[in-house]
């Protein structure tokens, strides 16, 4: 990665940031872009979005003039290329500049569609970092606050779970997002006060490190309640588990309810202290599979020889060795679905490697 994005000869008066709404990495990427705008005395506006919603977001960019448009933590699927390229093309013709920073998989076609836009667009795709780290390195490499935000995003995006405030922010974002979905509110609007505090003071703006809590009492209370509720749901999911030993590995399938993510469940169920069911002390599963009500599968591992991505491939999915996702399809009978999943896993040994690889 090279020097900060230069604005070049283009006369830029504002920054428009488009980032991923789903997670901490998306939010903190947007915050880093906002600090870049502040450092250049440029006006800043942002919108957070998700895959499948590009059609309602990118056309907004087509109305901008003399703006630096920074897209972060979003890949470009082939079927979104047309709407994205035509919107950004219009913006560029109106004096805008495009910078796109990401860490997802891109097809050659998608890469070409951005690089051929004219106006010297910048596209950086790097799988080794999360999007916030890329934004930090490209836009604000000497800013300590952005360095901290990038560390926090890395901790959540790579599921390290070592920074307390990063875990708390992950939960806060989830509960705010579930809340806006329930009430039909706009997530970007709901998250704006948090983004502003992060922009001004970094994590210290929202998080009291000494007390280990959010500064906003109401938010802190909501996160506590959300966590308790989540643990209750995860206990229940664990109680209804289906376990089977396959190729010498303990495979555990749990049905996860709405409001609990595979990452939540995977992290929680990897700690033996959480695995007391009645009088029984369960072992941590070698492979944990989550099945959600809409038929999606999540894969997490309890030991490094398990290749979650190889397991996911048996179910039209993929991902990383330590975390992956796939699809089972709609089901009515959980136990019947489990038997089916167990059968599919027994047909292959590819998800168990003799050598350990990757990080857990
Ligand atoms: Mn990300």
Description:
The chain contains twelve helices and 15 strands. It is of the alpha/beta class. It has a six-stranded mixed beta sheet, sandwiched between helices. Helix 7 (164-183) packs across helix 9. The protein is globular. Residues 1-5 have low confidence and may be disordered. Bound molecules: manganese (II) ion. Manganese (II) ion (MN) binds next to loops. The site of manganese (II) ion has 6 residues, from loops.
Summarize the entry for a quick read.
The chain has twelve helices and 15 strands. By secondary structure, the chain is of the alpha/beta class.
What features would you highlight for this structure?
alpha/beta; inorganic pyrophosphatase (n-terminal core); single chain; 2 domains; six-stranded mixed beta sheet; five-stranded parallel beta sheet; 360 residues; Diaminopimelate Epimerase, Chain A, domain 1; binds manganese (II) ion
Number of strands: 15
Residue share in helices?
40-55%
Shape label: globular
Major sheet characteristics? 6 strands, mixed
Supply the number of structural domains. 2
Shape-level CATH architecture of the largest domain: Alpha-Beta Complex
User: Which CATH class of the largest domain applies here?
Assistant: Alpha Beta
Percent strand equals 15-25%
CATH topology type of the largest domain? inorganic pyrophosphatase (n-terminal core)
Number of helices: 12
Low-pLDDT stretches: 1-5
Secondary-structure element order, N to C: EHEHEHEHEHHHHEEHEEHEEEEHEEH
Hetero compounds: manganese (II) ion
